[in-house]
């Protein structure tokens, strides 16, 4: 996938994103937690997408801004009630600047959810993302990351194929190749139906939570809390996800 850029995932999936992730529709616990952390705001979402989280957060009265590389997916948010009022910077979140006059705007909360940080597809890009976030945090600000705990055992000979839907007129297959040296996974969600074949590519560079903590340290941040889920439950050896909250180290 040589032509893959920061905008490719959003551009290709924009039309079907909201229907593709119905299991992500229950945003209540996430929005509750983000509302508490945002305090009087403002908040900034990296990879804001169709506004799945940003819109209900803004509806709680918090000033929300967004960054996204894909105009096409942001257009989906802007078409929803309240979406046009959310300012979005079209940029790669691996190295960004949201301006307030002639300086970086400061946020009480910066957050990146649903494994989106891993869509910065190199260690260097993820470090730059942490550094950009640190430059945009107010002194009492926090950076929240929701991400999966990597599980290389799900690959056999560094490949994985799974059928997520098999219906009489539609088949949905996920195909991935794993590069363990670079912690990269290149995937295609493939839909085969009566209207033809549709491909939705995604590339991620996964990191363990310990590596994220070091990236935070490089950016002058430190871990404040880590949960196993949005309900603040403890992060344990059996946790498949984590919600990690970083604050300024000094
Ligand atoms: C999995 S979606 C998450 C969308 C939204 N945050 C949510 O939770 O529903 C990832 C989003 O990040 C955007 N994205 C991916 N890589 C990016 C990058 N390097 N810079 C900026 N946006 C990016 C995509 O366009 C997409 O909107």
Mean pLDDT: 95
Which structural class matches the secondary elements?
A: alpha/beta
The number of distinct helices, counting runs of at least 4 residues, comes to 7
CATH topology of the largest domain: Rossmann fold
From the spread of the alpha carbons, the general shape counts as globular
Strand content: 25-35%
> Quick one: CATH superfamily of the largest domain?
Vaccinia Virus protein VP39
**Major pleated sheet:** 7 strands, mixed
Instruction: List the uncertain runs.
Output: none
Describe the structure.
- By secondary structure, the protein is α/β, with parallel strands linked by helices.
- The protein folds into 2 domains: 184 residues, Vaccinia Virus protein VP39 (Rossmann fold); 52 residues, N-terminal domain of TfIIb, CATH 2.20.25.570.
- Helices cover 23% and strands 35% of the residues.
- The chain contains 7 helices and 13 strands.
- It has a 7-stranded mixed beta sheet with strand order 3-2-1-6-7-13-12, sandwiched between helices. A 4-stranded antiparallel beta sheet has the order 8-9-10-11. Strands 4-5 form a two-stranded antiparallel ribbon.
- Helix 6 packs across helix 7.
- The longest helix is centred in the middle third of the chain and has 13 residues.
- The model has no long low-confidence stretch (mean pLDDT 95).
- The protein binds S-adenosylmethionine (SAM).
- S-adenosylmethionine binds next to helix 1 and strand 2.
